[in-house]
TrEMBL record:
Family annotation (PANTHER family): ET TRANSLATION PRODUCT-RELATED, UNC93-LIKE PROTEIN MFSD11
GO cellular component: membrane
Residues annotated as transmembrane: 7-26, 46-65, 100-118, 138-158, 170-190, 238-256, 276-297, 309-328, 386-404, 410-431
Intracellular or extracellular location(s): Membrane
InterPro entries: Ion_channel_UNC-93, MFS_trans_sf, UNC-93-like_regulator
Gene3D superfamilies for the chain: MFS general substrate transporter like domains
Family: Belongs to the unc-93 family.
Membrane association type: Multi-pass membrane protein
Keywords: Glycoprotein, Membrane, Transmembrane, Transmembrane helix
Major site of localization recorded for this protein: membrane
Full protein name: UNC93-like protein MFSD11
Amino acid sequence: MSPASKKLFNIIILGLSFMFIFTAFQTCGNIAQTVITNLNSTDFHGSGYTSMSIIYGVFSASNLISPSVVALVGPQLSMVVSGVFYSLYIAVFIQPATWAFYTASVFIGIAAAVLWTAQGNCLTVNSDENTIGRNSGVFWALLQSSLFFGNLYIYFAWQGKTHISESDRRTVFIALTVISLVGTVLFFLIRKQEDTKAPGEEDSANEILGDSSSAQNRLTRAVAAFKKSIKLSFTKEILLLSVTTAYTGLELTFFSGVYGTCIGAVNRFGSEEKSLIGLSGIFTGVGEILGGGIFGLLSKSNRFGRNPIVMLGILVHFIAFYLIFFNMPNDAPIAPMEGTDDVAYMIPSKEVAIFCSFLLGLGDSCFNTQLLSILGFLYSEDSAPAFAIFKFVQSICAAVAYFYSNYFLLQWQLLIMVVVGFFGTITFFLVEWEAAAALTARGSDYSSI
């Protein structure tokens, strides 16, 4: 197998592994609050929103040390161990206990930071400036296929049900735990890249992949990775991209947790309200897959760079927010177990609700594929610290959003996303224009990014 084929193989395996793990985890997140609402009449007194807030809060803090962990044990083992913790979190729902639920939330927050830092490193090491756009799109399309498969099962299994029984819950979460473990095992198929650097050259991405050095050298690299993360955090490009990243954290919370809960709380949807949660996730996944696939395939022929794709993303999201504001009751995110009979500015429409799910997924893929691409392009030699900072900002904003989702009405959640999304788009444009100028100065073709 040629080096180029080996790199593409690694990207595909990476995407498939994440697809299986997040088929389980994203489906779990999409239905968690609905399942927990049906449990709160028992001894269980947890909150799905609070759990997600803990996860993303710990996730954000753990990104400060995740580059050091990846440097110490290598990206492959980091992803394997992290995948095991994802599976344990999902398994908690088989027989829920409040203490286990919140303890697992802490551990998965740590695992998520390590997993995504290792993923960014693996993506960058297996790409160059000519393939980073394609590889980001391929990875994102495979990853977001997870939204399709898990939610398709939920749609058919929960159709016509207004209450989720103990048997229904156990069947779903046993299946999701097994699926997550399959994804974890697939990480073992990723092949290490051979170091092609001259003996005196340094490349932090390749150093992190190495596994033949002494424990002392690994510890030295771990400390260096931590220092590099702190240093990169205060560069102009990272600070500007942090606004865009913050927006992706807010809208991640909304489409992966809050919006499904809103749909499930609308009594006017009748007996389909619970199964519509699954259908919503399916169409979010369709939007994600379509966006990732198209932007990956077209990256080589896109002479205008990343900005038009990000502009498409914010326009698509603004349309979605406008329609959701008119279609969904204002108290839907915080409705009680009985749901809500309120009406917004129109009679709640299932078709509009599902169409908005598609738009949320499409817009999200626009932002995330281009953020992955520009980070891999700008920080090809410092990929682990750069992706750790990216996930630090994204996860802390997701944690904040999950926290306020317990209290804020729908209109205020939408307003926050509109404001942050507007400024995040502008800051991305500024960084992209500088990247284009730097590429032109090197004599490279801007369309290659």
